[in-house]
Write a structure and sequence with these properties.
With about 260 residues, the protein is α+β, with helices and mostly antiparallel strands. The chain is about 35% helix and about 30% strand. The chain has 2 domains: about 140 residues, Jelly Rolls, CATH 2.60.120; about 110 residues, Jelly Rolls. Strand 4 and strand 5 form a beta hairpin. About 25% of the residues are buried.
Length: about 260
């Protein structure tokens, strides 16, 4: 398998082992057709062809493997396509965008030969286990990437307004560097420091901004818009603790300020 995801060394170990198992398990078993041309547009594997009595061993080309609309990996030389459906329904699809060549095996005939040999049978179950482990890694990485929040990095000079009281926008901010002051009706009620998340209340409540936030020094901030705040919370649960802690501190500051009037 060829993948462009960020994977740890364990993935490479599993991938190499998968190749070793396939080679040893099928050693001496003749395919129905060797190095056959599989045309562009053909579906080599998917839920809709799950009942097909064939599986393939890639000899030339790199078919893509999709999970929904996400590209998980590309097959490479020696990879088996479709054999995993012996264990259950296919969850991925390999639809050819370019022609490839592959050895074609009959599932039923090959399975009979494998089951007659204890060693081959053990290798088949090991193949399923290793393949399942690899898919868990790739699917996990893919889903996490799809939820990863997007943000813009913005620089503001001292004195610039980050949030204006009464505005109806719902962006959420994280202070990367610098400090900002929090003002209610032009009265300072607190400050925002580095690594603090702020502006979340309008996002959570849907109400207009309750305070103005103005850069006290030059500031670099991350701006999360739309559903990216939700993604931030999903992929980084610690952010929720930061939000609760920061909100608590700001309420204390506000109460102290108002009590001193």
């Amino acid at each position: 398998m060829i993948t462009f995801q960020n994977t740890d060394p364990q993935f490479d170990v599993l991938n190499r082992r998968l190749h070793e198992i396939a080679e040893e398990m099928l050693d001496g078993i003749e395919p129905e057709e060797e190095n056959a041309l599989i045309q562009k547009g053909e579906i080599m594997n998917s839920a809709e062809v799950n009942g097909r009595e064939l599986f393939f061993r890639i000899t030339e080309g790199n078919p893509p493997v999709m999970y929904g609309d996400r590209l998980l990996f590309h097959y490479e030389y020696g990879d088996l396509v479709g054999i995993e459906s012996m264990q259950g329904a296919a969850v991925t699809e390999s639809r050819l965008d370019l022609a490839v060549r592959a050895d074609i095996f009959n599932k039923e005939k090959t399975l009979k030969k494998i089951r007659k040999d204890d060693k081959r049978n053990e290798l088949l179950w090991e193949y399923f286990a290793v393949y399942s482990s690899i898919m868990q890694v790739l699917l996990g990485n893919s889903l996490a990437a799809s939820r990863r929040p997007h943000f813009q990095l913005k620089h503001l000079a001292a004195g610039e307004i980050i949030i204006r009281q009464g505005a109806t926008d719902t962006e959420v901010y994280s202070m990367v560097s610098g400090r900002a002051e929090v003002l209610v009706n032009d009265m300072k009620v607190g400050e925002v420091g580095e690594n603090e998340i702020f502006g979340e209340m309008s996002r959570l409540t849907g109400k207009p901004r309750s305070a103005t936030v103005r850069a006290k020094t030059d500031c670099d901030i991350m701006v999360f818009g739309g559903d990216d705040f939700n993604s931030l919370a999903e992929t980084n649960p610690a952010a929720l603790m930061d939000i609760a802690r920061n909100l608590s501190e700001r309420l204390k500051q506000l109460n102290t300020t108002l009590a001193g009037q």
